Automatic annotation (TrEMBL):
Protein name as it appears in the record: adenylate kinase
Top-level taxon of the source organism: Eukaryota
Reactions this protein catalyses: AMP + ATP = 2 ADP
Complex formation: Monomer.
Keyword Nucleotide-binding on entry: yes
Keywords: Kinase, Nucleotide-binding, Transferase
Amino acid sequence: MAAMNRLLKPSQFSSSSAIASLRRCLSSAAASETESRLKSRSCLPPSADPKGRNVQWVFLGCPGVGKGTYASRLSSLLSVPHIATGDLVRQVLSSHGPLSHQLAEIGNQGKLVSDEIIIRLLSKRLEAGEAKGESGFILDGFPRTIRQAEILDEVTYIDLVVNLKLPENVLLEKCLGRRICSECGKNFNVASINVKGENGNPDISMAPLLSPPQCASKLITRSDDTEIVVKERLRIYNEKSKPLEEFYRNQGKLLEFDLPGGIPESWPKLLEALNLDDREEKQSAAA
Ligand SMILES: Nc1ncnc2c1ncn2[C@@H]1O[C@H](COP(=O)(O)OP(=O)(O)O)[C@@H](O)[C@H]1O
């Protein structure tokens, strides 16, 4: 804890209390191992239970790449919460509380919410999870800027960062085809994607991910999944979030993963890349 206090420089951030609450939520598991593991920089290939605790992973990737889909599947497999900051923002929006108006305006322009607000939302979510006995996490959508990554490093230890990748024209089609069930919250996709690979890259095909009949009449489109806003989100991703790849590559934590297609092709390959293929087999056998 003392080591983390030394690392924190609240003056660099508009609200030191937002960082303090994030630190409170995340302090327990990893504080003591932060410095030694940062020095060793030898985190790949990943372990599903580093030092006997639950994983603390981050998913990076452009809008529409499928961070939510794969992070959510892995969270079930590893019994850790999948925490998507975009979902936290959407919960605020649907609450119609005092913050929702401000966030709606930012979201509809494809812009990022301030670090202070996003860290407060994340802290609140972690606190609620802790009260329910959750430990470990797969973060999706956080960090999204170098400053957020620095704050995260100041308060806890991240074991692994998975960077999901797809060509930009596929991402646009995927975002425009995305549909969400307004009742159960599950994501589907009506796009049927067939994109020729360029510069020696393989072709990419993805079948639509259709909803079951009980969701069909309740499908909605995210208000930020319009062509103009998706293009702006991609631009902002490249400007603000892409530098995170180098940040985590330098820490030896980045696992790059080019999605070969839809879920049926990509999921087994992702498990293989994460050394988790035998874990899924064991769970399926036990089920
Ligand atoms: N870490 C973050 N920092 C700032 N804003 C965020 C963050 N996470 C989510 N948001 C806000 O929530 C919106 C939706 O996030 P998300 O569902 O992760 O979108 P995407 O599909 O673009 O990855 C973002 O466009 C942004 O306005």
